[in-house]
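User: My collaborator sent over this chain with a note saying "see what the structure looks like." That's all I know about it. Can you take a look?
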Amino acid sequence: MKTIILTACLTLGIFIMNAQTTTTEKKKDAQGYSYEVVKNDKTGVRVYTLRNGLKVYLAQNKDEPRIQTYIPVRTGSNNDPSDNTGLAHYLEHMVFKGTSKIGTQNWEVEKKLIAQISDLYEQHKTETDPEKKKALYKRIDEVSQEASKYSVANEYDKLISSLGAKGTNAHTWLNETVYKNNIPSNELEKWMIVEKERFSELVLRLFHTELEAVYEEYNRAQDNDGRLVNYQLMKDLFPTTPYGTQTTIGKPEHLKNPSMVAIHNYFDTYYVPNNMAVVLVGDLDFDKTIKMVNTYFGTMKYKELPKFKLVTEKPMTSIVRSEVKSPTAERLTLAWRTAGAGTKEALLSEITSNILSNSGDVGLIDSNINQKQLALSAGSGSTAFNDYGYQALSLSAKDGQTLEEGEKMLLAEIDKVKKGNFDEMMIPAIINNMKLDVMKTFETGDGLATTIYQAFIQGRNWSDIISETDEASKITKTDIVKFANDFYKDNYVAVYKTKGVNDKLVRVSNPGITPIQLNREAQSEFYKTFSKIKSKDLAPVFIDYKKEIESKKVKNTTISFVKNKSNEIAKLYYIFNMGSDNNKKLPLAIEILDYLGTDTMSVEDIKKEFYKIGVTYSVSAGNDLSYIYLSGLESNLPKGIALLENLLRNVKPDQEVYNTTVATLLNTRSNAKKRKESIMNALINYAKYGANSRFRDILSEQELKEMKASELTDLLKDITNYQHQIFFYGNDLKPILASLEKNHNLNANKAIPVAKEYAEPVTQDKVYFANYDMVQAEMTRIAKGEKYNFSNTGTVNVFNNYFGSGLSSIVFQEIRESKSLAYSANAVYRMPTDKILSDYMQVSIGTQANKLPQAVDAISVLLNEMPKIERQFNNAKESSLKQIASTRISKTNIFFSQLALKKLGFDYDNRSDVYKNIQNLTLENTNDFFNKEVKTKKYNTAIIGKKESLDFEALKKLGTIEEVTLEEIFNY
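Assistant: Without extra context I'll predict from the sequence alone. Here is the result:
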């Protein structure tokens, strides 16, 4: 068997590992624009450099008439002044605030007030007397209130959303600040008009409220122990350079004492065209697009960048140990410093990391720790920055297991690499899977665009990205062993995340910000002019499922086929209309399959065979649907089918493995009760469904311990005897059908077990509170609505855009922009995925605990009366229409969207009806919907936070308060 698969592996290698010439070719289009392409690059990426130094990357993706846009700036928190850390990040926030043209009603008056605010901040920064500092902040608040009279809050977001944009956001990291939008292709020029103006100058409008929102983001980071571990890891790995001496979010004392002057200086220094790029991937014409980019962005002025002083880290010569405490379960991270992106060392590190742990679960750590369940989980990963990087190994400890023991286990696996104790064929298998991952990434516009902007940030040529896996193919086992012996020494960082009280949390007082004026009805002259610019309309295209999906009945099984028009990667699904509602043991059976083999093959052997042929498999069980899934190179999928069917037919029970799995499961349950995120999820579920919920209806500890492994393997062996359907996404159905007829039970006719039904109780003004030591408090209010009613779908689509989701929504403006109560706030009306279920209205906010009373009042006001702003509503309506018009259902979504529609009672693409409904929708219709479905409902509320920090008198306004135990909400 192994010999056959090894041959298949080599066949795969011949198919995708052939080294291609990746030389860069210089070309010129008919208009005279010069660009570079890489020979044999299937993505067709063109790289232009404008006269002002701006890099422009263009690539086509015709899946739908939309374009993924990124504007990356090659600067981040590493360039923050040491006395103004966090600056790059809150500058990113301020770039959304507009310019002297966007976001203002009267710039001549407003700019004088902003200058006054800037001067006050400079005084505030240097003032040491606490009382005088408070007085200065009060004055800043007063002048900001006056300045807000002349602003138009969120006008940039209104401009962009009017285009039908999605995913409007930005992020800042060590060496990068990246601005992102996904737009309809017919709105490309209007997008450029806005973005050119946006990056032409910086106006620090509505500064003090946004800065407070950034501080709320800092609070969120304090409550995220993953970030705390990473901060310590970076500090220990990079004690000399900004990689470790400062964080992207910044120090709290710097966030509370900013300098608007310093922010302007940073913008003027780094936000210059020769330090920026425009990345566009989607339905575009190369020649028209580059001309357009040059017209708008080519006018930006080139400016010399400052000469950087090269600061390097000294080689690590000893082990650096640190401890981080938080309420969550214990885990450890070990990390070795590497060279930066694009270096041979970074590539060797990535391959070695995959030898230790990889997506096929066949690395040394996967096989020797995870597969044997010697820890809750363990893994390895490699990260590359511009100048440095690191390889990290992590391990989550089991109860009673020390982190020291975990460290020894990880080091033992490294020692095997150093001694060459691993299968040599792992290396070509890793390279093959790396190439498959690249194919999957480049399949989507966003995946390709993300890879492009990362290459720009790292200063790498596109040819280097395209040739990277070919370079990896040259690496041998001898190279890896030599690297491991040179690299892995007592020169690493060890961060122990232990359970305890985090005594480093920073808790500050509520600054008492006066809500600023939003001026929702106002528009700048720029907006008025912009609104008159007409783009060519895009007609919506609705899918004909009967045309796009080829279906046939083979024996007793329906097989559906959708053709892959993009690449050679195929996907195969067995789909069962049953899940945990039908049999509570099914999810457990699927979980244990990951640890079991057959009579003739160990689980390690099985996973290696899949990994060698570049095919992945997974089995999953939801509430009412279960899937068996295969994906990989289409030519190898029949081999994958044979392997999978053999496993399902001949899976061998192992009581010892089962008992260990149960112990791990119980340990995982225990750890969930220590994690804020898990507790809040359970609390929301309790507020929504009460005690008799699906979430709480689980196998008890006693049931788990009394169960026999054979009960679960019998269930797995029997699963393909149940009625099910098959979906294949690929190029040629015939070989797949032949393999299915040979290996699969196409006569399956066993009836699906009856599903247990769970009630949806009425919500009735109850407040459920869980105590947890954290800086913020998180609150979610939820109300049960009516049964599914399709006629509301169009209204709900626009209502969500207008009222509660997105940067220009009513809730976001009131909670964050005006009152600065939270970093994140949203309100969403959710329609069910099944026609027999009910709608729910849900409002969520995370805020500093001492701001919660204000947040309670603000949300209550919004849920009692929806502000009616005709212009903003029309904007939301147009955005919804443009998003539908520019969206195309493609690839596997063709089948799965139809599957979802069938649960709602439809056999056609009902977006055609939604589109018509939205066209006829008015603000009054939407307000009627709000009054009926949102305003009149009773809400249950879930709140998590530190009990001593919360104002329970304020919470009584929401209903009867009940402090719940973790046992109540988790049911264990």
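A starting point for your reply to your collaborator: Residues 73 and 276 are 5 Å apart (CA to CA).
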